[in-house]
Specification:
The complex is a heterodimer of chains A (237) and B (73). Chain A is mainly alpha-helical. Chain A has seven helices and no strands. Chain B contains three helices and no strands. Chain B is elongated. The chains are: A mainly alpha (237), B mainly alpha (73). Chains A and B meet through helix 1 and helix 7 of A and helix 3 of B.
Amino acid sequence: MTRKKNMISRWWWKILCIVLLLFTFIKGLLVKIPNLPALEETSRNLFFHVAMWMAMMSLFTVSLVNAIRYLRTFNLKYDIYARQYAVVGIVFGMLGYATGAIWMSYTWADPNNPLFQSFGALAREPKLIGAAIALLIYFAYLVLRDSIHDMDKRARISAVYNIFAYAMLFPSIWIVPRLLPSLHPGQEGNPAMNFNDVSPEMRLVELPAFIGWTLLGVWITTLKIRMSLWKEKRLTA
Amino acid sequence: MKIIKSSLSLLVVLLFAAVAQAQNVAGESSFGQTMRSNGRIYVVIAVMTTILVGLFLYLIRLDKKVSKLEKEA
């Protein structure tokens, strides 16, 4: 009985993640969406492309919290947490970037102009550059952290750098792109989170999608954390 | 045990494909009709869901493997 209870308490959010993502994939393709010019059916990417960035931001936030927790307690466990959350956050960020590249090729690019020639204009998008800067800063976090051999020094320096990286996330993906003209939505606020911009049917899929993808990221991260904790334990034993 | 499990799941997938195929030949079963409506979008949903379920099964297996390792150590 207690074992069963334990199973449920450990697995309920993983089951929730599976259910929400299955719902996203099925309902996300079937839901009626407003037919907007240029976007047409691609609005469905809201459940996939935008969800990648939502998951990335959540994972980076958890990483920051764990970096601060490390600096408060100097418990090396939190250093491992912070690193793994940052890594999975980067993976989601790169997926967001890749999916965005595909999406923009068929919505922004001038159909009369080959993609190769309109690339020059598209690459100047402030949102793209901002996201690239943010991801590169997090890449540098990994380089910095994994190049220091002393465990305590590594944990302390990378925790401080993690806070800096998160602070850079704000201007590079939220502030600067909003100050500059751009094709990318999000000039005047949060279009995906705004009740007036998303039709109610889409909203029904959108929130489960964001939560489901974020939970998937957390699930993968917990596996990575458990593996590195196990490795650490074996090394010290 | 593991081999049995994996071959069983492969069999289920093949069976599903075969059933879909058979209905294709027979013509108008309700399942086939549904799958071919709306510009056959349901086929895409079936493919995407299969991939997602496969990934989830893999993740669950990894999770269980890590749990086992943790218990051993």
